[in-house]
Design brief:
Elements: H1 9-40, H2 46-64, H3 66-72, H4 74-88, H5 97-107, H6 109-125, H7 131-139, H8 141-160, H9 162-179, H10 184-187, H11 199-207, H12 212-216, H13 221-250, H14 256-284, H15 287-305, H16 314-327, H17 332-342, H18 348-377, H19 380-392, H20 394-397
Helix pairs in contact: 1-2, 1-4, 1-6, 1-7, 1-8, 1-9, 1-13, 2-5, 2-6, 2-18, 3-4, 3-11, 4-5, 4-6, 4-9, 6-7, 6-18, 7-14, 7-17, 8-9, 8-14, 13-14, 13-15, 13-17, 13-18, 13-19, 14-15, 14-16, 15-16, 15-19, 17-18, 18-19
C-alpha cells in the first residue's frame, strides 16, 4: 500500500535532530550540577539522585504517556516534552535540591518519548536491509547531545556562569523543536479508533493499563531476553554518563572544562560506535555477535575507569573514554532494532516502550545505588567494578539465533 509520506531521509533527519536535543537535555544535568552544587552547597552524590530523577521522568512518560503518543503522534509528543523540559530549567535557580529533582523529572519526559516515537517512525520508513544502520544513526543522536553538552556548557559556565548557561541550553533545545514542528503532521501516524477521544481520557485509560508495554515483551523468549540485555548494558552506561564528570573533578582534581572535554570524547565514541555497530550488525546479520563484543569492552573499560590515577597521561584517559563510548554507550541502536525485529508488526511501539521501561528502571536504580555506595564508602573503584560485571552478564542473556 502506498503512503503519502516523505522519503526516508526526512523522518530519519527529524528523529535524529529531536533525539539529539532530548539527549542534550538530559546530559546537561551531570555537567552543570557540579557548578550549581558548589554554589548551593549540595553534596556530590546529589548528581546520582538528580540523574535518577531524570530517568524517572522518562519512565513516567513510558508507562503513562502511551495513549498520548497514539493520540498526538510520537514526533509531536516528543516536541511538547522538549518544550516542557526547556521551561523547567528555570527551576534550577531556586536553591533547593528537591525543586531541582522535580525539574529533572520533567526534563526526563522527553527521553521517555524519544525511543517509542523513533522506533515507530523508523520501522515504517527505514530502507530494506538497512534497518540496524538507520536505528543506530537515530541513536547516535544520544551521544551527539552529550558532545554538545560536554563541550559547550563548561565553556559558558567559565565565561558567564551557570545561570547564563541554563538560558543558552534552553535556546539550544527550543530551536530544533521549532524547526521540526510542522514536519510532525507528515511524519506521524495516528492509530485508528482513538482520534475521537480527548487525550486526557486516553492517558487515564493508560494509567489503568501500565502493564501492557511490559506484557508485550512476553510475546516470545528472544524478545524478553534482548530487552534484559538492554537493561544490563544500561548499568555501566548510566554510571559513565552520571558520574564521569564529578568523579574526575572530585577525585582526580580535574577542572570542569577538562572533565567536560573527556565526557565529550566519550560521547564522540558513542556517535561513531553506534553507527559502526549498526553497520557491523547489518554486515554480519547477527546482533548477538555485535552485542557480545560490545559487552566485553564495556565491562573492561568500566572497571578500569575506577582505577584511573591522577598521574596517568591524559591521552590514556581520553583513549579509555573513547573506547567506552564506542562500546558501553553504543549498544542502543542494535538492541532497539533487534527488539523491533523480534516484535509483532502491530506491537512495535508497545515492545519498544516495554524495553525502554526496563532500561529506564535501571537508569533510576543504578545511579542511585552508585551514589549510595560512594556516599557510604567513598570507593569509586569498587562501584565501577560492579557496574562492569553487569556488562558481562549480557553474554548470559543474549538470545542465540543459530547463525
Amino acid at each position: 500500500m502506498k503512503r503519502n509520506a516523505p522519503t526516508w531521509l526526512v523522518p530519519v533527519a527529524a528523529i535524529f535532530a529531536l533525539q539529539t536535543i532530548a539527549a542534550f537535555l538530559s546530559r546537561l544535568i551531570p555537567i552543570i550540577v557540579p557548578a550549581i552544587s558548589a554554589e548551593f552547597g549540595w553534596s556530590g552524590s546529589s548528581i546520582g539522585y538528580l540523574t535518577a530523577g531524570n530517568a524517572l521522568g522518562g519512565l513516567v512518560m513510558l508507562v503513562a504517556g502511551a495513549a498520548l503518543l497514539r493520540r498526538l503522534g510520537g514526533t509531536r509528543t516528543l516536541q511538547l516534552t522538549l518544550i516542557l523540559g526547556a521551561a523547567c530549567m528555570a527551576l534550577f535557580v531556586y536553591p533547593s535540591v528537591h525543586v531541582a529533582l522535580a525539574a529533572c523529572i520533567a526534563m526526563g519526559m522527553s527521553n521517555g518519548a524519544a525511543n517509542p516515537a523513533g522506533s515507530e517512525v523508523l520501522q515504517r520508513y527505514s530502507p530494506p536491509g538497512k534497518r540496524n544502520l538507520m536505528f543506530s544513526i537515530k541513536q547516535a543522536g544520544v551521544p551527539l547531545g552529550g558532545i554538545l553538552a560536554g563541550l559547550l556548557i563548561p565553556g559558558i559556565i567559565a565565561v558567564a556562569g551557570w545561570r547564563v548557561a541554563l538560558c543558552a541550553c534552553a535556546v539550544i533545545v527550543l530551536l530544533p523543536t521549532a524547526l521540526t514542528w510542522r514536519l510532525s503532521d507528515t511524519i506521524d501516524e495516528r492509530r485508528p479508533g482513538v482520534s475521537g477521544r480527548p487525550w486526557y481520557a486516553l492517558s487515564l485509560h493508560s494509567l489503568r493499563s501500565l502493564a501492557v508495554p511490559l506484557a508485550s515483551l512476553g510475546h516470545n523468549r528472544g524478545l524478553l531476553n534482548i530487552s534484559i540485555v538492554g537493561s544490563l548494558f544500561a548499568v555501566a552506561q548510566s554510571c559513565w554518563f552520571a558520574f564521569t564528570v564529578i568523579y574526575l573533578v572530585d577525585s582526580l582534581n580535574f577542572s570542569l572544562s577538562l572533565a567536560g572535554a573527556i565526557f565529550a570524547v566519550m560521547q564522540l565514541g558513542g556517535v561513531l560506535g553506534r553507527i559502526a555497530l549498526g553497520w557491523i550488525s547489518d554486515r554480519l546479520q547477527s546482533a548477538t555477535a555485535t552485542l557480545s563484543l560490545a559487552a566485553i569492552f564495556s565491562a573492561g573499560t568500566t572497571a578500569l575507569l575506577g582505577f584511573i590515577q591522577p598521574d596517568w597521561p591524559l591521552w590514556t584517559i581520553l583513549l579509555l573514554a573513547f573506547v567506552a563510548g564506542c562500546t558501553a554507550a553504543s549498544w542502543n541502536g542494535v538492541q532497539i532494532a533487534e527488539v523491533a525485529r523480534r516484535s509483532p508488526p502491530d506491537l512495535v511501539s508497545e515492545t519498544a516502550a516495554g524495553s525502554s521501561i526496563l532500561v529506564t528502571f535501571v537508569n533510576i536504580v543504578a545511579p542511585s545505588a552508585f551514589a549510595i555506595a560512594i556516599a557510604s564508602s567513598g570507593r569509586y573503584d569498587l562501584a565501577f567494578l560492579c557496574a562492569g560485571v553487569c556488562s558481562l552478564l549480557v553474554l548470559v542473556f543474549l538470545p542465540r539465533d543459530g547463525r
